[in-house]
Write a structure and sequence with these properties.
By secondary structure, the chain is α/β, with parallel strands linked by helices. The chain is built from eleven helices and eight strands. It has an eight-stranded parallel sheet. Strand 5, helix 7 and strand 6 form a beta-alpha-beta unit. Helix 1 runs parallel beside helix 3. The longest helix has 24 residues. It binds a DNA duplex through helix 4.
Length: 304
DNA sequence: TCACGTCAAGCAGAT
DNA sequence: ATCTGCTTGACGTGA
């Protein structure tokens, strides 16, 4: 079974779930106003997703603004307990898988211990949000391995050392993703062997940065890093952005390219959750789902 | 109401 | 040295 998802915001709906503000204007009332907006919007998005058979969604890291910043000592998980519970119930009722992707400032393998500390605080925020929604360990927190600092070998060892210091509740949720410049899927597989961490294969990053292997071939090793409790393996699929120097981001999914990508993965006997990192988000997700239906590759998980 | 300077955080590669 | 991309614009002051 293949499910399709999209990240963070829905452009069809009027609401936005990632409203934030400047640090300089931080106040409890502004914070509460934004969080309330973001959580209500998340509810709307879940309704939209269910109606459109989108059973996979990435929750914005901006849902709780400045969640890991020292100025923020507000107990949001208590203040918003009711709506967080309501969101959690919808996620379960709709059978939607959620996850999060902390931004580039989370670097577990930095040589600067302060950066590592801040990164862990930020990861603990992501964990707290996913736990407050009563999700299980299939709701993943997806990170990159980090920098190389001119010495990739020791940077990898530093990742291992720091990862091993994390609480197990966090380790259960973390997954690593290959990036477009430094760490390939092969590097991720090495880390997974050492740590038992599952791997998100990013197809676009793979195309920019690989060791000459076929995607479908290395994917067979990648899916072995996922245990049943982790949920189906996640693949990130994105468009040409970054390849063209013109700043031309593909606005919409290109079904010809998507079909080539699907060819690679449908040969493998596994479920997949595919995150579409495409500019028009839910529109392309619906197009992709309709494409899967036409190809006979779609099963509605609710009707099974 | 709108223009526009700037926004918590890291890193690497291009310019 | 500075800018850019990364999941991607949008906050909010000042006119």
């Amino acid at each position: 079974m293949i499910r399709i998802g999209y990240p963070c915001i829905n452009r069809t709906l009027k609401c936005r779930p990632d409203k934030t503000f400047r640090l300089s204007s931080f106040s409890k009332s502004l914070f509460i106003e934004k969080v309330e907006n973001n959580l209500k919007c998340l509810l709307e998005i879940l309704d939209f997703n269910f109606k459109n058979q989108i059973y996979f969604f990435r929750i914005s890291s901006d849902t709780i603004p400045f969640a890991s910043h020292p100025v923020n000592r507000i107990k949001w998980e208590l203040i918003f307990k009711d709506i967080l519970t309501e969101i959690g119930k919808k996620i379960k009722e709709y059978n939607i898988r959620v996850g999060m992707h902390p931004d580039q400032f989370v670097v577990l393998n930095s040589p600067d211990n302060e950066i590592v500390k801040r990164s862990i605080k930020e990861l603990l925020y992501h964990l707290k949000l996913l736990e407050s929604l009563d999700t299980k360990r299939d709701a993943k927190i997806q990170i990159h391995i980090g920098g190389a600092y001119g010495d990739k070998k020791s940077a990898i060892e530093r990742f291992i050392k720091n990862y091993n210091k994390l609480p197990s509740s966090l380790k259960e949720r973390l997954v690593i993703e290959n990036d477009e410049r430094l760490y390939t899927l092969k590097d991720c597989l090495y880390l997974s062997e050492r740590l038992g961490i599952p791997i998100v294969a990013d197809y676009f990053h793979y195309r920019l940065n690989n060791c000459g292997e076929r995607f479908g071939e290395i994917l067979r090793d990648v899916i072995k890093t996922w245990r049943p409790e982790d949920g189906p393996p996640i693949i990130d699929y994105s468009s040409q952005k970054g390849l063209t120097k013109l700043g031309r981001h593909t606005q919409r999914i290109n079904l010809k390219n998507f079909a080539i990508f699907l060819e690679e993965i449908i040969k493998i006997d596994s479920d997949f959750d595919i995150m579409l990192e495409i500019k028009d988000k839910e529109v392309s997700a619906i197009i992709a789902i309709n494409f899967l239906k036409r190809k006979g590759l779609w099963k509605d998980p609710v009707s099974i």
